[in-house]
Structure formats: structure tokens, C-alpha cells
Amino acid sequence: MIGLASVAVVGECAIHPAALTVDGEPFGAVHFGRPQQVTGLSGFDQNFTLVSKTVGVFLSFFKITFWEFAQLAVLDRVLLAMIVLAVAISSITWREINSQFYIAVLLSVLFIGAINGTIGVNFRYQLPVLGFMAWVLISNSVKARDRLLR
């Protein structure tokens, strides 16, 4: 009876048969993967070492970065071109403060996306890049104009 009540309340089909014998705790551990007494199986990321988690973040960084730029290539080529142009200019003028800020913010938001790990939802985290990208492009376009007018 208790097991059937937990199925009705939880509304899940992954109820472990041991839940039928749980005494006095109808809302206790009834699913696979929970760290309580029903199955003893650990969750997905509980037994990873710090080294494997660190490597996982870097692998996620490359995966998420690839997909984010692939989405830009499909959906907004102009923005992708501006980002690539600002990266190229910043790598040439890396001693200027605006270039350093742009590269730092760009890498920071890409790592935030890697920590999040979800493809396609990281644009809201990447919005700060736009201001620094504009700063790099505008300041270097003014410098290029001044060089041409001399």
C-alpha cells in the first residue's frame, strides 16, 4: 500500500520494488540512483575524481564552444564575423587594455557555458562580450581612420 501511494504521489514509473517494503517512510528513497538505502547506486557524478571533473570541464569547453559558434554560423553570420574580427584585432593589439578585457571576458563567458554544459542556452551568459567587442572594434577603427588621414 505504501509503495502504491508513493507511485501516485511521485508520479514516476521508475519505482524500485524495494519501495513496497519501506516501513513508515512512504516518501523516502524510491528511485534508482538515489544515495539512500533502496539500491545503493550512486548518482552520475558522485564518484568522479577532481582530475576527471577538471578534464571534463575542458572537454565541455571545447564541445560547447564548437556548438555555440556553429549556431552563430547558421543563425547570425554578421555577429560571428564581428566576434572573429575582434579576436583577430585583439590578438594583434593584445597590449591595449580593451583587447585584454575583451579576451578575458570572452574566455570567461565560454567557460561559464562549459560549466553550464547545456548547448544552445548560453547566449544570456555571453551578452557581456558584446560591449567589449564593440569597444575593441570602435577604438581600433578610430585608430585606423586616424592613420589613413595622416
C-alpha geometry: elongated
Q: What structural category characterises the helix and strand content?
A: mainly alpha
What is the tally of helical segments?
6
Query: How many distinct beta strands?
Result: 0
Q: What oligomeric state is this?
A: single chain
Outline the low-pLDDT stretches.
32-43
Give the percentage of residues in beta strands: under 5%
Q: Largest sheet at a glance?
A: none
Provide the domain count: 2
Radius of gyration: 25 Å
Please provide a written account of the structure.
By secondary structure, the chain is mostly helical. It folds into two domains: 1-45, no CATH class; 50-149, no CATH class. Helices cover 65% and strands 0% of the residues. The chain has helices spanning 2-10, 50-75, 77-92, 97-116, 123-126, 128-149. α3 (77-92) packs across α4 (97-116) and α4 (97-116) runs antiparallel to α6. It starts with a helix and ends with a helix. The relative contact order is 0.09. The model is unreliable at 32-43 (pLDDT under 50).
Keywords:
150 residues; mainly alpha; 2 domains
Concise account of the structure shown:
This protein has 150 residues and is mainly α. It is built from six helices and no strands.
List strands and helices in order, with pairings.
Elements: H1 2-10, H2 50-75, H3 77-92, H4 97-116, H5 123-126, H6 128-149
